[in-house]
Amino acid sequence: MADHVHDGAHVAERAEARWAWIVGAIILFLVAMMAYMSLHWAAMPPVRTETVDPTTLHIAGEFVETNLGTAPEADGAVTVRLVANQYSFTPQCIVVPAGTPVRFRATAADVVHGFSIAHTNVNMMLIPGYVSNFQARFDQPGEHVMPCHEYCGVGHAAMWAHVKVVDKDEFQRLAAAQGGRRMSCVK
Ligand code: CUA
User: Fold this and answer.
1) Are 65 and 88 in contact (CB under 8 A)?
2) 83 lines ligand 1 (CB under 6 A)
């Protein structure tokens, strides 16, 4: 009988020890997970949300009308700035050089619009209050349609623009003729 009691206590002690290890392991796992997540977040690039006041786009800042269109940059790339509003894009015809990095910077003046260029991977949403960025490159000269692809009101289906990709030499000539002003193929 005495032996039996002694065995029981021993079994209980071993079970307790086992559970202590399991709980300890769980706590360690949770702490390790927190440490990993913290490091992971700290190592991520910061979110680069750019905001812009949609009510003053036409008055001041990057998206005033004279600054919309294509701007050659010092590094050889081009930046295209455009604004969407019900129911058109400004500019209506965008000209870019082939084989050149193209940065799109765009926003919406009123409601959410869609920005996509047919037969390319260019696809983003234009949201009032935010600047949308997209890096693209067009290998071949040619024309692309650029429909709005977010429902934005009764005129949505008629909201289109065009992108004209010209070869680099022609783009240089056009740029020279513009004398530093923003470029487009709006006639
Ligand atoms: Cu703009 Cu649909």
Assistant:
1) no
2) no
> Is the separation of the CB atoms in 125 and 112 below 8 Å?
yes
Please give the distance, rounded to the nearest whole angstrom, from the Cα atom of residue 121 to the centre of ligand 1: 18
φ/ψ (deg, to 5) at 56: -120, 20
Q: How far is CA 79 from CA 36, 85, 101, 148, in A?
A: 39, 20, 9, 20
List residues bridging with 146 in a β-sheet. 161
Whether 118 contacts 149, CB under 8 Å: no
Collapsed DSSP state (helix, strand, coil) of residue 104: strand
Averaged pLDDT, 100-124:
95
Helix (H, G, I), strand (E, B) or coil at 22: helix
> Using 50, 70 and 90 to split pLDDT, how confident is the model at 187?
confident
Query: What's the DSSP call for residue 58?
Result: T
Report field, pTM of the whole predicted structure over 0.85: no
Best CA proximity match to 89, nearest among 170, 145, 142 = 145
Could you tell me the CA-to-CA distances from 67 to 23, 60, 64 in Å, in that order?
A: 63, 10, 6
C-alpha 88 to ligand 1 mean position (Å) = 8
Q: Encoding tokens for residue 154?
A: 């009764």
